Amino acid sequence: MGEHGHHTILGFDRYAFNFWVLMIFTAIEVVAVALTFSMKGTVSMNTVVFILVSVGIVKGVGIAAIFMHLQGDEDSRVLTATALFPVFFIVVMVLFIGLTHPDAADTLPAWCRPGFYT
Amino acid sequence: MSYGGHDDHHHDHQHSHWGPHDWDHGHGGAPHNSWAPIMLAFGSSIFLLGFTKVFTQTWDSEASIWTYAIHSSQLGLLIAGLAIFTAGLTVFWRQDWSHSGSYEAKAVGTPFRTIDIRKVAVWMFLMSEMMVFSSLFSTYIRYRLGFDNCVELFESSIEPGSTVVLEAGQQCWLPASYFIAEGGYHQEYANAALGFMPDTLIPGAINTFALIISSYTIVLALKTAKDSSLSDAERSRKVGNYLSITLFLATLFLTFKLIEWFIGFNIGHPGDWYYFHAPSLSADHFTIHESAYTYCHHWDHHGGVDHKGACEPGMDAIFDIRMSASTFYVTTGTHGVHVFGGMVALAYMVLKAYRGGYTPQNAVSIEYFGLYWHFVDLVWVLVFPAFYLY
User: Which chain B residues are Cβ-neighbours of A115 within 8 angstroms?
Assistant: First the structure.
């Protein structure tokens, strides 16, 4: 927790504030999906994906920055760089291998390909 | 970073009340190297390799069933892996885990100079964990981007005037969310009371809130442990309580995971206005063996709530969902194993807390566990929407 014990956001203890943000955003996430599937056609799947990605980013940043202290501490910068280091490999795996070979999944060996039969 | 109360001048012989800690190893108090991480990694690799050799399954095409076998000749590999892993844990315990935390050695190498060495170690560990989960996620993303959704493909092919043509053997992906968020083919028989909520989503949704709350209780345990205004007895009781709540929530998480995978649940009985039926994923046939899952566009309702209704002719399709199920169970199972590992550590911490083991001088030990626990929460923040909702 370091030096953050008494810091506040909008008058709230920063940890309590983060906790309630996470709870509310999770509720938004679940309700959006529940509505989508229960009342088909009400919300498009693209909208749901947008909501899920946006909420996921907010929640992820909240946990990493405040709960894991990657923001505000003296050592936050170097530890953030440490935490982001694997992102390099993720980018390589997802972008440079996955997306530059759009047919890659189709050319997987048979034992690891899903099948469809009518 | 200063935590206050760390005594940098008395590090030569740190004796812990919590185990045979031997910090300096006769090297003048410098942080020591350790075989423990290598032993743990090697041991777990051998164990997992042995696991795949001992338990196998083969498809009996004549009987159309999967047959399982246990190869006792390969048990040695499993036992050797477990033994190396246990030895690694023992070394870990003797060297570090039992450290009382009242003295924090600093890292000496760039770029971590002056940062508490245990904190650096936890972040290094978390980096390797990120790579594990990145591999699982990139696998999932590759499949999701590489194949069409089976249901969407089928639905578009039967639309009047559709030009989409399906052929036997064509590949597609039936996501886990079809069974979880969409309720699978039993959807129309469920949710009498909670009509807005897809049934099998409930355990996952509760688990998401449970993990977030548990992240907060860990923070509260740390804040309380650092509170020097409390008496020792009160502090120990409160820290123990917060850690116990965290342990309870972790147990709840795995319990709901088991319900979601294998057990399912009912509220009321068929015909009751409040009847709620949430079958498990295995009861819904979302298993790693399901090479011929029957999807039905429109069920004949005469089958009733046991889902045995017949599908209208020409309105069904058979999907091979083994790869989708494997990806789901491996990813969520790996996350579950991490929750279980956290529970083991939490059980130890609860005992330590109630015995007065955490003080403002060594409260930072809770923070280091908290980093791991928040990471487990963070992974779930990604797993939940990716696998359960999308």
Answer: 169, 171, 291, 319-320
